[in-house]
Amino acid sequence: MKNLINDDFCENTNNQTSISEILNFILELQKDAKNSNRDYKNCDRPRLGSLNNGVFNTRPINLYICCSGSLWTMPYELNGVTASSTVFKVFKVDDDCATFEILAPNPDNSTGLIPYLGTNNFFTINLKCVLAIRCLNDTYTE
Question: How open is the CA angle 69-58-97, to the nearest 5 degrees?
Fold first, then answer.
């Protein structure tokens, strides 16, 4: 897992890629959704998943809030149950704003292959409010 720091809010001399560029990259991977022939551990893995792990279509992420550095949490409703999640799937990126689908933990993850479910609950955030992102292991969501 890799954290990506938002240079707009951090005194960092490294020339890092912007959060918006990384999210656009992830969005393109999710649209392409092909298996990888290499196993990468960062946000910039060139394909989703690895050759040995089946089909992937999602690179889930965590978002961290500016100023406090807290993990971003959003409420969702799924099958009549209301809860909160810190795991999101990038859905759309427009300049400095991005829309995410909230992902819920899969209550029936006995195989360990599908840890999250798509909730069809979305939110849009100004990326200037995001301090950092963390990419989680690639997975499949419907």
Answer: 50
- Cα separation, 63 vs 123, in Å, equals 12
Which residues is 51 bridged to in the sheet?
Answer: none
pLDDT tens profile 108-119: 887 777 899 999
Can you read off the two tokens belonging to residue 26? 């992830």
Strand runs (DSSP E) across the chain, as ranges?
A: 3-5, 61-65, 74-78, 81-85, 87-94, 97-105, 116-126, 130-135
pLDDT, tens digit (0-9, with 9 covering 90-100), for 53-62: 557 889 999 9
Nearest Cα residue to 3 out of 30, 56, 58, 41: 41
